[in-house]
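USER: Write out one fold?

ASSISTANT:
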Amino acid sequence: MVTLKDISKHTGLSVTQVSRAINNHNDVSEATKKKVMKAVDELGYVPNLAAKKLASKNEKSIALIVVGFEKQHSTNDMLIGIMSGVFNCTSENDTETVLYLYSEKFLKQKSYLQFCRERGVSGAILCGIKRDDPNLKELIKSDLPMVVIDIPYLTENIGSVVIDNEKYSYLATKSLIEGNRKKIGLINGSESAYVSIERKAGYLEALKDFGVEIDESLIKDGEFSRDKAKECARELVSENVDAIFCSSDLMAIGAIESIKELGKNIPEDIAIFGFDGIALVDYITPNISTIRQNSYDKGYKASDLLIQHLKNKTPMRVVKSDCEVCIQQSSEAKKK
């Protein structure tokens, strides 16, 4: 890669003169600027934008880091809502948003912190990470300000935006129980995902409070996958469940497909309740009961929390985003 030193050697000018010419400073003559720019063209020099950002106190940018983007299903519109909320908030605050999409394979080559340092961003918003992610632990130990979405971290430099997964999973399960469902299965997400731990806890707490027997064999790991959820649903149907609470709408869609293939009716034979509130739940037949998150609100609040910390030294916080319980056709009450 061509550097300022290479241009300096090529032109016979000092590195400082070359730098000032490239940045169009007024104290550099037009002849010198032309000489330097000619060398830039001949050598193919490309400015280091990250270095320029680091050197400029007026340059403001934050990174939105999305992990596991390659596993996002095309029907999952929650990420778009988060991105929109982040972008609108940064735009209102004259701050640049830089989007980084990571795969697990790529993370083994370069950490989040490395990327943030190389790009010279002022802070970061993290979405889709797992609590046991080693690269997250590296970031936590650093001094880079950041906001984590969906995991409740709080330190001097770290804040978070979360929903009360346990509360809303409790309400979803409670709704199924009040709909005269007696044997309720759970298709959960991933054991290492914080939201899955909380959603399972809410499900179990509701069963306990309403005197419904807890059967661990009715709890399946659907890995937030539509196809995996279809497998889980087939297993639960064989156990004669009359309701299934799914920790994501995508898994609820998979469960509905599997139940229909087995000749069962929804909600007459088996009720379904999802979580997230993606747009597609309103277009499935029957439309799916769900806990509707406000993804835009999560993105906006995460961005606002980070920007206020960077601009005004406002202390980091754990900020809550509210959800809506949406009862639809898939979980209508069972006739006694």
